[in-house]
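Note to self: keep these together.
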Amino acid sequence: MTTASAWDVLEGVNLPEGYRVEITDGRIIMTPQGENQWEVILSASTQIKKQLSGKGRILSDVMIDFPSTLFGYAPDMAVIAPGAERNSRRRFEWHDVEAVLEVVSPSGETNDYVKKVKAYAECGIPVHVVIDPAEGFSTVYSAPSRTGAYREAERVPFGNDLFLPLGERTLVLETGDFPVEPPTPGAAAG
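Structure:
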C-alpha cells in the first residue's frame, strides 16, 4: 500500500486486553466483546476452517489494511483467499479478503449495519455477512458496488443455513446453535 494504514496511529500503544479496537471515520473505538458474540464467532469460525480445508484461512479480530487512513477494521471473522500474502506491515489487505462476517453488538449496530456495509462494498469485498443475535437473523450481502452498496442482500433467520459463495466454492454455515440475545430490560416489545 502506498497510503498510510489507519492502524499506524496505534503503533507503540498498549491496548487493554479483552477489548476490540477498530478505527471508524478516523476515531478509535474500543468495545468489549460480549458472550453471545464470542459464541457465534467460535461456532462460525470452526465451521469455516473445516470447510476451507487449507484453501484459504479464517481470521478473527485481526487487523486488515483497508485503502483508507480513516478506517481500520479487524473483522469479527475474515476469510482470506488462498495464496494471499502479507504486506510490508505483516498484514493482509482488503483485496485478499473473500468474505467478512461481523457479529452485531448492541453498541455497534450503526457501525455494523451502515458504515461497515458501505466500506466493505466500496472495497469490493465479495461477501459480507452481518450476524445479529438481538434479532436472531443474519444478512448475507453480495455483489458489491464501488458506490458503497451491495446489490444483493438475503436475510436468513437463525436455525437456517447460511450459504456463502466464494468464487468456485460455497461455504455453508449452520446457525442452529447461534445464541439469541435476551430482550433488553425496559425495551418495547417488537
